[in-house]
Amino acid sequence: MSFLSATLSRVKPSPTIAVTNKAQELKAAGKDVIGLGAGEPDFDTPENIKEAAKRAIDEGKTKYTAVDGIAELKQAICAKFKRDNNLDYKPSQVTVGTGGKQVLYNALMATLNPGDEVIIPAPYWVSYPDMVLLAGGEPVIAAASIQTGYKLTADQLEAAITPKTKWLIFNSPSNPTGAGYSHAELKELTDVLMRHPHVWVMTDDMYEHLRYGDFEFCTPAEVEPRLYDRTLTINGVSKAYAMTGWRIGYAAGPENVIGAIRKIQSQSTSNPCSISQWAAVEALNGTQDFIAENNKMFQRRRDMVVDMLNAAEGISCPVPDGAFYVYPSIAGCIGKTSPAGVKIENDEIFATALLEETGVAVVFGAAFGLSPNFRVSYATSDEALKEACTRIQTFCASLT
Predict the structure, then answer these.
(1) Where residue 347 sits, what CATH number does that domain have?
(2) pLDDT given at position 38
(3) Residue 286: left if φ>0, alpha if ψ -120 to 50, beta else—which one?
(4) Which residue among 11, 245, 268, 301 is least crowded, i.e. fewest CB within 10 A of its CB?
């Protein structure tokens, strides 16, 4: 009998972290590697937020706080939900965790029983299915397609719901595709959910402010107010505020669910970093002007990457609405052979050959539940993106 928990056999390590680590190892060994796997902005945290953290240190705000967040941060979160999403929450309906990932995990641990099903649209963020499995639930994958812009349809959602369904995890704009749901598209999904009152909605709105062109963000409880009492709306400061390492995520929802999440957190990590919490107060309450400026740079990078990848042989790359990812199809490359003699049988082999033969690190599509694809994060410099895409073009042209 293994000393380790049998639960671990149900899950695997994060592929995105694995790709990032592999790229860093190759760089450390002197290889010319361009890493396009990390899901974090390359911008520095804004000065006003850093100054708020310094003040917190100087003022001695370095002690334990309430388990799931200081009152000032919960008030700022309530104000944010009202300002940005027209959602009314009280501080007692808010929880703050060590990143959005912990909030998601806590919520699943607090609500899932063995056999409970969680619908996860694919492509999905790599951690969703494994967190469901760790919590004892069963992920039900509802695969979208490039034909629908990688977005779940109402018919697909309807078909995935069973009497065992407890949650739908909903992410827009999406990691890994950048696809965003319009108000009309989301209304079609919420209409389905209204016919199934036993199904709750767990939103991952982490990329809310990273949107481009005329795409307008909306979240399920905003689109369908009758879902308010069975929606957990999750967000955080990591992406829009370039605060990935500060590790602050938050959620709002029914008080009984928030209380259950608090109980889980009280016996695991306890409070998030006190200094990070005060920085997050400033992020949410302070100036938001830099978001639009950063988005201009992200959109310029997006357009360049999409154009260059669509110019590569065998690749088709849709234009995303938000986040900082593209999710091109490599259907035209499958079955071909690389210059090193590697037969490209699937997207994992493609990504491995691309890294080993060109030094470009991307995450293969199977990690996100939909193949044959790969994910590029364009949250890096224009120069690195241009060089990486040029290498991808050369690699694809060399396939025979």
Answers:
(1) 3.90.1150.10
(2) 81
(3) beta
(4) 245
